[in-house]
Amino acid sequence: MENEIIFTILALVAIVSSIVMISAHRPIDSALSFIVTLVSIAALFALVNATFLFVVQIIIYAGAILSLILFIIMFLNIKDANLPDEKHKNKWLMGTSLIVAPFSYILIDLIMRSDIAVNGIAAENFGTIKDVGLTLFSKWILPFELVSILLLVALVGSVTLSKKED
Which of 18, 89, 134, 147 to pair with 95, CA 20 to 30 A apart? Predict the structure, then answer.
């Protein structure tokens, strides 16, 4: 029962901070809300004893990636006057939410029908290095390789675009 209450609180914190991240006007506010989101997700991993995912979430995402994002925001020194006027931002957010809502309902319905909802407790080795490695390189090898190729194409594209401006 205590875990369910803690899970609910952490999930609500993640959802609210995600909404703040999307709806914030200043980039620094979005980045700080992103930190709260990542830390609350890491806490969710810790709650289900997924130690490897917890450590990776904290070190890589909340540590390295967000440090880089904050460094870039501070380096660019974006003033409020330089930010775009987003008159229709709330309309876009509402429209996007309406589009995403049916898919979210389907996803929640699938999760509720899955073994996760029935068992309620994660397996003993859930989230360990061995479990993540075996799952990635056995069941999910094709999506893993496709994401690798996508990241490589994005890297080559960003280098190409940066060279064009020189």
Answer: 147
pTM: 0.66
User: Which amino acid does the sequence have at 22?
Assistant: I
**Sign of dihedral through CA atoms 93, 95, 98, 101?**
negative
CA-nearest of 7, 51, 55, 13 to 35 is 13
**pLDDT tens column, 67-86:** 888 888 888 877 777 777 77
pLDDT tens readout for residues 126-145: 777 888 888 888 888 898 89
Q: Burial letters for 128-151: b for 16+ Cβ neighbours within 10 Å, e otherwise?
A: beebbeeeeeeeeeeeeeeeeeee
